[in-house]
Amino acid sequence: MAVKETAVREALGMQRAREELCLESAEFEVALQTGEVRTAPAVGGRRRVVREDVDRLRAEEGFPDRLRARLELVGSIEGAALIGISRERFTRLARGGFLRPVRWYVNRYRAVVWLYLAEDVRRFARSHPALLEGRLPAELRDALDEGEDHRARGWRARRIEELVRDAEDAWGEAAAWSALLGPAAAADAVPDPRERAYLRRLCPAIPPGSTGSYATRELIEAQTVASDPDEITFAQVSLTDALLRARTTRPAPHPERGTPAATAVAPIAPPPPAAPPPPSAAPRSRWRRLLRLD
After folding, report:
1. What is the DSSP secondary structure assignment for residue 12, as one 8-state letter?
2. Domain for residue 43, yes or no?
3. What's the CA gap between 75 and 210, in Å, rounded?
4. Would you call 64 exposed, middle or buried from its count of C-beta atoms within 10 A (0-12, 13-18, 19+)?
5. Which region, left, alpha or beta, applies to residue 147 given φ > 0 means left and ψ of -120 to 50 means alpha?
């Protein structure tokens, strides 16, 4: 959502906003990621928190406990206990694309650990009680047995939505989609070397957050770069659309000159509703249509 310039002047620094919201640092990071707390661009490339969001959240009944509950993260063990199912079933449902992770890290065994919003887990349980007990649909079981796993793709979809939402202009949007594609695919999609260099400066990679000290570059890239064919196609289309809009506002600046302040543009609205849906859910299949899960 675009933020008006008047809101920028009424914004708070990150530390001040976190303190007023009575949040721990990790909780505040989740609030920024999920859009509970919006930010606006400020001088020097920094971002500040919109004052009206802080006031609105502080005015909520049950503040700050209800806000902190919405920001609670759970792993597979806690998530399964939250809705009364086994950890194995929870993991299979997450692999099937029914739960999108919010964060991840690599543990000392070099395994990726996925974290979910507790509120998302509760909402899923309320919406799909039939999936909490009994045998899972046969086609879902078959897909999972063949290795289907949508957790990384679901996380990437959520993260790219956040980056596009917070982009200051169409160039920022294009940079996010370019980062999702990775250097090789982005080079094919953006033939102009000056534009590629500018996009890399704006967003060199999808920021994964805290990945842990055991994460390797290869492991990080495996989670942050698009790998599914449908996901790659959607990113390419979205990048092309963002670039077309960006070029109508201003050309990519020369690397040695930077972006002149006079050419800066205000934040733009999200892509129009007519655009195809983000790659946030598992691909459509007969078992999902039968369960009306798309």
Report:
1. B
2. yes
3. 15
4. middle
5. left
149 and 104 in a common domain: yes
In a domain, 95, yes or no: yes
268 falls within a domain = no
147 and 116 assigned to the same domain: yes
As a whole number of angstroms, the longest Cα–Cα distance in the chain is 63
Residue 288 lies in a domain: no
pLDDT at residue number 79: 98
Q: Are residues 228 and 168 part of one domain?
A: yes
What is the b/e burial string over 179-198, where b = at least 16 CB atoms within 10 angstroms of the residue's CB? bbbbeebbeebbeeeebbeb
Quote the pLDDT of residue 256: 63
The label of the residue with tokens 């770069």 reads 225
At position 272, the amino acid (one-letter code) is: P
Domains: count for the chain: 3
- pLDDT, tens digit, 9 for 90 and up, residues 208-265: 988 888 999 999 999 999 999 999 999 999 999 999 999 999 999 977 655 443 333 3
**103-106, strands of its sheet edge to edge:** 73-74, 112-117, 103-106
pLDDT digits (tens, 9 = 90+) for 265-274: 333 333 333 3
Based on the fold, state whether residues 159 and 147 are members of the same structural domain.
no
Domain that holds residue 246: 155-263
Segment 82-97 shows an average pLDDT of 97
Q: Cβ-count burial of 140 within 10 angstroms (0-12 exposed, 13-18 middle, 19+ buried)? A: buried
Find residue 105's DSSP bridge partners.
113
Instruction: For the chain, list the strands marked E by DSSP.
Output: 39-41, 47-49, 73-74, 103-106, 112-117
